[in-house]
Amino acid sequence: MYTVKDLHTNTPLVTRTQGTGNDLVFLHGWGMNSGAFTSFIPYLTNSFRVTTIDLPGFGENAQHVPSPYNAESLAQMIAPYIPPESIVVGWSLGGLVAQRLALLSGNKGLALKGLVTIASTPRFIAGPCWPGIAGDLLAMFESQLESNYNRTLERFLAIQAMGSDTARQDIKAIRGHISEYPEPDQHALKQGLRILSTEDLRQDIGRITVPTLRLYGRLDSLVPTSGIDRICELHPQADTVVLPHAAHAPFISHPQQSADILFSFASSVYQQKAS
Asked: AB hydrolase-1 domain: which residues (predicted)?
């Protein structure tokens, strides 16, 4: 554990909360903000209290840029804002941060009920015997960032939706909602890509003790299903669900199905802990 410094401000992070019930906390993916969950949250708020937190450097927390900027520092900065006994739900890059939070659970006053990763993995970058994102693709995004963030985001969204029968609608839905939030910090964008390129939790996820659900889309080009068995071997305690017709954003393309899966898992976790 090391000290995390906020480069720009010491003001509190911005969080948004809707609904009533047991707590779910949502963390978004790279280049995004909590607007990505806008159309999905109403499926949950009759049963849960849903909190969204923009990752430091993104959205309403764009002015908060930790140093160093990595998954662990993001987790440490977010941890104080997570309600006690929450299930943390992390999508894509947010899933890496959520896994870090699960590893921190039990320390520094953080006590999670559970973990859900959506289209996430302990390691995004491809490597020997490990399916993932090609390194040159992330390098291309990083070089394009310097000239045009919006165009880079459009290309990233297109890759995320690739394979989905509702790809155009998915992209339009996400783009429309995230545009309602402030643009991200440039340093956070670049370092976020660096996290996707370098973070490797494969040797750590076996130490996650909270109940875990890993939700995937079979058509996801960023988190290939060919790597799911390897993740299961590293984290056999986790439940795994693969949506056959979803890509990288199953909560956008298949919101009701995703909500039902999340509801079933969260309900069982809270009932188990209460008994």
From this structure: 24-255
Residue 21: per-residue pLDDT: 97
Distances (CA, A) of 89 to 95, 109, 150, 181: 7, 19, 26, 20
How far apart CA 94 and CA 274 sit, in angstroms, is 27
The catalytic site residues sit at: 92, 220, 248
Tokens 């006994």 -> residue: 85
Other CB atoms within 10 A of residue 219 CB: 22
Please list, in sequence order, all residues whose beta carbon lies within 8 angstroms of the beta carbon of residue 162, skipping any fewer than 6 positions away.
219, 221, 247, 248
Q: Using 70 as the pLDDT threshold, list the residues of the chain that sit under it.
A: 1-10, 273-275
Q: How many domains does the chain have?
A: 1
Q: What is the bridge-based pairing of β-strands 114-118 and 87-91?
A: parallel
Domain that holds residue 103: 5-274
CATH number at residue 133: 3.40.50.1820
End-to-end distance of the chain based on CA atoms, in angstroms? 33
Dist CA 56 CA 65 (whole Å):
6
Burial status of residue 197 (CB atoms within 10 A of its CB: 0-12, 13-18, 19 or more): middle
The owner of tokens 């949250």 is 41
pTM of the model: 0.94
Structure confidence at residue 5 (pLDDT) = 52
